[in-house]
């Protein structure tokens, strides 16, 4: 009998498969792709997410899959004189961990899936039209490439299909969604003149930009932009417009290194939606993990770290005993609700600061930066990128703090 079926072979699902199979459970991992390909997903893992990867036993998959340590963070911005931009040392936040990782998402997932198989899990790729039914004896069915429908009746289903929430929607778990802006991303190569261990972000004109090097001249580029520009980076000439958006006064040499780079993967754009579950992210026989269980705005960059925390927490519960009824997952539900509330709050502050445009927004950023320079406590939200949410001081998550941050900057 199958103990656990995991629907979704991304970071959350594949890492959970590794942990559970290594713990002796019978695991089936279903992935809808025929093979792991670049789908333009998050490719940045915070130091606290790296610590979760170590606890899950999948840390080596990142190194073997091409993970690149980022050691410094530069924030270039039209509200800041380029000569005043200072590098933030990203290796100092969690002793023994180092800086965050930038990595090829699909390559790491492929290695995790292989590790799960080596530990005894069954991997089924190209599983189409997956259907999940909750209950004390849940069922999962899918179409094979030959068109046959196969069914598995495990003890438990883990839904890990990401922001599409395929499993959650089928079992009646609803989300409260909010969209502040749009985002887009692409892999590039030929970025040889960019410092290899420096990530960058900033805002100028009508875009917020991000550059995450992955070594050897490769990098993942992201743009965040307003809803009115939702179609700007689609259709003929989209890649030229995307790279052209990095020709910015605030970047060294007007961003020439980025503008002259070459496309090395698909360009994708999406509405940057935050989703908060309207109840527990589980029901009888089904537990959601990763983005499927709710997520903060992608501007924060903590989605993969959350996925690792979810996988580790739920796997620990499953490996502790035979009772897998909903009440047993209450610690997971409470911790995740607390974590997501903090991340969502922090993402709203960052979105307001960096993904709003025009003269008033520029002045707001300029004033907030001056406030942060005078009062280090005002920078507390930035810690969310580095350390786990529970380790960030509580005062940074109050409406009073947010109101004072923006009011005093005015």
Automatic annotation (TrEMBL):
Q: What class of enzyme is it?
A: oxidoreductase
Q: Which SUPFAM superfamilies match?
A: FAD/NAD(P)-binding domain (SSF51905)
Keyword terms of this UniProt record = Oxidoreductase
* Record Pfam families: FAD_binding_3
Extract one GO molecular function annotation from the record: oxidoreductase activity
What is this enzyme's EC?
1.-.-.-
Q: Which residues form the FAD-binding domain?
A: 2-320
| The keyword Oxidoreductase belongs to this UniProt entry's keyword annotation | yes
Asked if Oxidoreductase is a keyword of the record, the answer is yes
PANTHER family recorded? 3-(3-HYDROXY-PHENYL)PROPIONATE/3-HYDROXYCINNAMIC ACID HYDROXYLASE, FAD-DEPENDENT MONOOXYGENASE
Q: This protein is called what?
A: NAD(P)/FAD-dependent oxidoreductase
User: What is the native source organism of this protein?
Assistant: Nonomuraea typhae
């Amino acid at each position: 009998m199958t103990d656990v079926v995991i629907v979704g072979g991304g970071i959350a699902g594949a890492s959970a498969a590794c942990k559970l199979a290594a713990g002796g459970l019978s695991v089936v991992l279903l992935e809808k792709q025929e093979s792991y390909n670049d789908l333009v997903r998050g490719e940045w893992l915070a130091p606290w997410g790296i610590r979760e990867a170590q606890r899950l036993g999948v840390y080596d998959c990142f190194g073997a899959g091409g993970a690149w340590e980022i050691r410094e963070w530069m924030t270039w911005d039209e509200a800041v004189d380029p000569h005043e931009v200072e590098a933030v040392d990203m290796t100092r936040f969690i002793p023994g961990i180092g800086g965050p990782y930038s990595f090829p998402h699909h390559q790491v997932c492929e290695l995790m899936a292989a590790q799960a198989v080596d530990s005894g899990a069954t991997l089924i790729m190209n599983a189409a039209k997956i259907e999940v039914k909750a209950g004390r004896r849940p069922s999962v069915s899918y179409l094979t490439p030959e068109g046959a429908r196969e069914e598995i009746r495990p003890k438990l289903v883990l839904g890990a299909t990401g922001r599409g929430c395929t499993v959650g929607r089928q079992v009646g778990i609803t989300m409260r969604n909010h969209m502040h802006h749009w985002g887009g991303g692409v892999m590039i190569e030929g970025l040889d003149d960019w410092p290899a261990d420096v990530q960058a972000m900033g805002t100028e004109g009508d875009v917020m930009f991000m550059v995450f090097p992955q070594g050897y001249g490769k990098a993942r580029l992201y743009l965040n932009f307003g809803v009115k520009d939702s179609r700007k980076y689609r259709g003929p000439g989209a890649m030229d417009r995307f790279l052209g958006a990095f020709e910015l006064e605030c970047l060294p040499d007007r961003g020439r290194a980025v503008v002259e780079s070459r496309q090395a993967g698909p360009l994708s754009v999406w509405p940057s939606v935050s989703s908060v579950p309207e109840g527990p992210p589980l029901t009888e026989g089904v537990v959601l993990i990763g983005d499927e269980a709710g997520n903060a705005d992608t501007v924060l960059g903590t989605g993969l770290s959350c996925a690792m925390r979810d996988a580790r927490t739920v796997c620990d519960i499953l490996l502790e005993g035979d009772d897998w009824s909903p009440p047993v997952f209450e610690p997971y539900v409470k911790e995740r609700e607390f974590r997501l509330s903090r991340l969502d709050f922090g993402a709203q502050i960052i979105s307001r600061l960096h993904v709003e445009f025009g003269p008033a927004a520029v002045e707001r950023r300029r004033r907030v930066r001056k406030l942060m320079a005078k009062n280090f406590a005002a920078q507390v939200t930035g810690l969310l990128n580095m350390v786990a949410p529970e380790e960030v001081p509580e005062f940074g998550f109050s409406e009073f703090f947010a109101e004072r941050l923006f009011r005093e900057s005015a």
